[in-house]
Design goal:
Blueprint (H helix, E strand, L loop, with lengths): L5 E5 L20 E2 L2 E2 H11 L4 E6 L4 H6 L4 H9 L3 H8 L7 E6 L6 H6 L2 H4 L4 E4 L3 E4 L7 H12 L2 E7 L9 E5 L9 E9 L10 E9 L2 H7 L11 H9 L4 E5 L3 E4 L3 H13 L5 H13 L2
Parallel strand pairs: 1-4, 1-6, 4-5, 8-12
Antiparallel strand pairs: 2-3, 6-11, 7-13, 8-11, 9-10, 10-12
């Protein structure tokens, strides 16, 4: 089987949950400590062996594309001033063996439509889908969850959907999977028997929500092409995955790490706290500032 090396990152959304900041700044570019949120997702992809990243973007958000492009003038200025550490930080944004490609989603027709916009770049190869709102944190673990999903796909050819348990009263905010009698242990996969988008809590088949990481075959593009608008009158990736399940096995992968929803203000603040306290340069001062703040309450 050909090595899975491509990922699709849908970044065309308006980011209404992050207003007013997202009025002029793409929510993906809001910094978590000292890096834009999307950088963490790209780093996650690269750590899992991804070497071609497809941004599905909108004309109103050129800052994302510019961030991953070379800024010759800035690099030249840093080089002349001898600021080698900053220069290397810029060059490390995207390693030399990784390509970042941008395509446009002209109209906001849903996640499924966004994925379909990447079809010409992906071709007939399997690929990952990574929602940039969600940071998956595998700090202290030997391997990322995405890497384990890709390995499982390479070994079995079975599509993988990352899941985590959520409180039952919040299942109506997510895609939710149905499994057989046995739930997967953390770091492992089990066959799915169904998937539904934002079910009512009393109708949800489980409390295992889709995290925002998928490993899928190119067959999903044909299914998306024929998928009618669903929840929110949008083309839902969940609906196409349900159709794919009628043709082949799909597995739910139970994640080992933690997630932060950086599309929401509360999730963004939590991520900033977690990444801040362990930052190699800023962590010590940040922890002291937190202690002082808490002691004054």
């Amino acid at each position: 089987m050909e090595k899975l090396s491509k990922a699709v990152l849908p970044v065309a959304g308006l980011g209404t949950r992050f207003l007013p900041a997202s009025k002029s700044i793409p929510k993906e570019m809001v910094t978590v400590v000292d890096k834009p949120a999307i950088q963490y997702v790209v780093d996650e992809a690269i750590a899992a062996g991804i070497r071609e990243i497809v941004l599905v973007n909108h004309a109103s958000k050129p800052a994302i594309e510019n961030y991953f492009d070379v800024n010759y003038e800035l690099e030249s200025t840093l080089e002349k001033k001898g600021k080698t550490a900053l220069l290397q930080a810029l060059r490390d944004i995207v390693p030399d063996d990784v390509r970042v490609i941008s395509v446009r989603q002209g109209r906001p027709l849903g996640l499924g439509h966004a994925v379909m916009c990447a079809r010409e770049v992906i071709g007939d190869q399997p690929f990952a889908v990574m929602l940039p709102d969600v940071l998956v944190d595998n700090y202290g673990q030997d391997e990322t969850d995405l890497a384990r999903m890709i390995t499982r796909y390479q070994e079995t050819g079975v599509s993988q959907i990352m899941v985590e348990a959520v409180p039952q009263d919040r299942v109506d905010q997510y895609g939710v999977v149905a499994l057989g009698d046995e739930f997967p242990e953390a770091g492992h996969s089990k066959p799915m028997v169904g998937i539904v988008e934002k079910p009512k809590p009393e109708e949800a088949p489980s409390n295992l929500s889709v995290v925002g990481r998928y490993v899928l075959p190119a067959r999903i593009f044909e299914l998306l092409k024929n998928t009618a608008p669903g929840a929110g009158n949008e083309i839902q990736l969940t609906d196409a995955i349900a159709e794919l399940m009628n043709e082949q096995s799909i597995e739910a992968y139970q994640m080992r790490g933690s997630t932060y929803d950086c599309g929401s203000k509360a999730g963004y603040l939590e991520a900033t706290l977690q990444y801040g306290i362990r930052h190699p340069e800023l962590g010590s001062g940040f922890r002291n500032a937190m202690r002082n703040l808490l002691s004054d309450q």
